[in-house]
Specification:
Elements: H1 19-35, H2 54-64, H3 69-82, H4 86-91, H5 94-101, H6 108-123, H7 129-133, H8 140-151, H9 160-169, H10 177-188, H11 194-207, H12 226-230, E1 246-255, E2 262-267, E3 278-279, E4 297-305, E5 309-318, H13 340-343, H14 347-354, H15 360-368, E6 386-390, H16 401-416
Parallel strand pairs: 1-5
Antiparallel strand pairs: 2-3, 2-6, 4-5
Helix pairs in contact: 1-11, 2-3, 2-8, 8-11, 9-11
Bound molecules: iron/sulfur cluster (SF4).
Iron/sulfur cluster (SF4) is lined by residues 165, 168-169, 208-209, 214, 216, 219, 221-222, 225, 227-228, 233.
Length: 421
């Protein structure tokens, strides 16, 4: 979890050699030398031959921002194999990056990574905390983590795991405890080996000082730990009451061509959730369910959890029976909506019908005929391009996990009804 803090965490660091600070850092470094976790982006503390790579550290920290380390490992391998250097990444297309990011979630990170690579290819790799912080997608925690791990400079990085260690060790609670943890972390910063020290705290928080069942008996800090001394270490840190997830409802339309060899999709606008990824056309997500559409077969409801939303998405399928009079549904014919009266009640079929940006007149029709809101063509679709995608090449298109699940569900209902094998 990235801390939302904009001030430079180094500003108030004071390099005092107080005994408590020294003991804390020494315990942590000694423990790390014996117990560090191994990851493909890391340099082991006893490896004096290999220099840390800012590029690999940056990639890993971007992936780790919202995702657990064990999930990140195969993605990291694949990413580095495809883009071994900054230049490879800077020269790639955003689609190539997004394809590798599929399944990791929080796709804005991939866009940021791509943008930042292009900036660094021109300006060079930053050499300071402030330089990293100025790049897209990098907040105070990530900037500090890269600076100390890859460039061994003193920087204070406090993520959720490290916050928990400090909160328990010093018994920190109250309304300002999160702010105070940063201050405490600055005071305790080691005098040397800043990268190892930060990674030691990360590893202790992830593997020993766990949220539930901390393994205090294995902890190098146990002798001085306030939370342990009370007998109830899990009372720290103070629980943050999270807002309940909002329920949202929507419809999504999976339109296959007659041969069931292509499926109609379009790119999510960059500013939207899952921006830049390919998606099936669908309604706007709303707080209340909207009436079911007619003219499609119901395939099932998918419940998908986002950080702040529980989405109930009804999946509707169609096999492309709404071809134009010339029988050319996806050849880029701009004039294919000959019978608008049929297509008006099926605006997404209209999109699929043309395999191109929605013609302006279709939008006007939808305004004048008073379609039910869930089927109206939203402004979002005004400049959206759609495409018939061959199913056997769909892996070349970046899809969110949600859309992969939608496709699987639609495909399964076709198989179960015997329409396709
Ligand atoms: S002694 Fe227990 S509660 Fe204290 S820091 Fe170590 S693992 Fe966490």
């Amino acid at each position: 979890m990235v801390m939302q803090r904009t001030a430079n965490p180094l500003k108030s660091v004071q390099f005092r050699s107080r005994p408590l600070k020294k003991a804390f850092a020494e315990h942590m470094l000694r423990w790390y030398d014996q117990n560090q976790r191994t990851f493909p982006w890391r340099i082991a503390p006893n490896d004096h031959e290999t220099a840390p790579s800012p590029y690999r550290t940056w990639i890993s920290e971007m992936m780790l921002q919202q995702t657990g380390a064990s999930t990140v490992v195969p993605y990291f391998h694949q990413f580095i194999q495809t883009f071994p250097t900054l230049d490879h990444l800077a020269q790639a297309s955003i689609d190539q990056v997004l394809v590798l990011w599929q399944g990791l979630g929080y796709y804005r990170r991939a866009h940021h990574l791509h943008k930042a690579a292009k900036i660094m290819a021109h300006q060079g790799i930053p050499q300071s905390y402030e330089g990293w912080l100025a790049l897209p997608g990098i907040g105070p925690y990530t900037a500090a983590a890269i600076t100390c791990i890859a460039q061994n400079q003193p920087a204070v990085a406090v993520d959720g795991n490290i916050r928990r260690v400090f909160s328990r060790y010093f018994g920190m609670d109250g309304p300002d405890w999160i702010k105070n943890v940063w201050k405490k972390a600055e005071e305790q910063l080691a005098d040397t080996r800043w990268g190892d020290y930060t990674q030691a705290l990360m590893d202790l928080g992830a593997g020993v000082c766990k949220t539930k069942n901390p393994a205090c008996i294995e902890c190098p800090l146990v002798d001085q730990c306030h939370a342990f001394s009370t007998g109830t270490p899990t009372k720290w840190p103070t629980k943050i009451v999270k807002n309940q997830k909002k329920k949202q409802f929507g419809h999504v339309y999976v339109i296959f061509d007659d041969q069931k060899e292509h499926v109609f999709m379009h790119v999510t606008p960059a500013q939207d959730l899952l921006g830049g990824l390919w998606r099936f056309p669908g309604s706007i997500w709303a707080l209340q369910p909207s009436p079911d559409p007619t003219g499609y077969d119901f395939s099932g409801t998918l419940v998908h959890l986002f950080t702040h939303i529980t989405l109930h998405l009804k999946i509707w399928v169609d096999t492309g029976s709404y071809r134009n009079k010339n029988g050319r549904p996806y050849d880029g014919d701009t004039h294919c909506i000959d019978d608008a009266s049929i297509l008006l009640s099926h605006p997404f079929k209209a999109m699929a019908h043309c395999d191109m940006a929605l013609p302006a007149q279709t939008k006007e029709y939808s305004h004048t005929t008073g379609l039910s809101p869930q089927l109206s063509i939203s402004e979002d679709y005004e400049n959206t391009w759609g495409r018939w995608i061959p199913l056997n090449r769909i892996h070349e298109y970046p899809l969110s996990r949600l859309m992969q699940n939608v496709l699987n569900q639609a495909h399964a209902s076709f198989v179960s009804s015997g329409i396709i094998e």
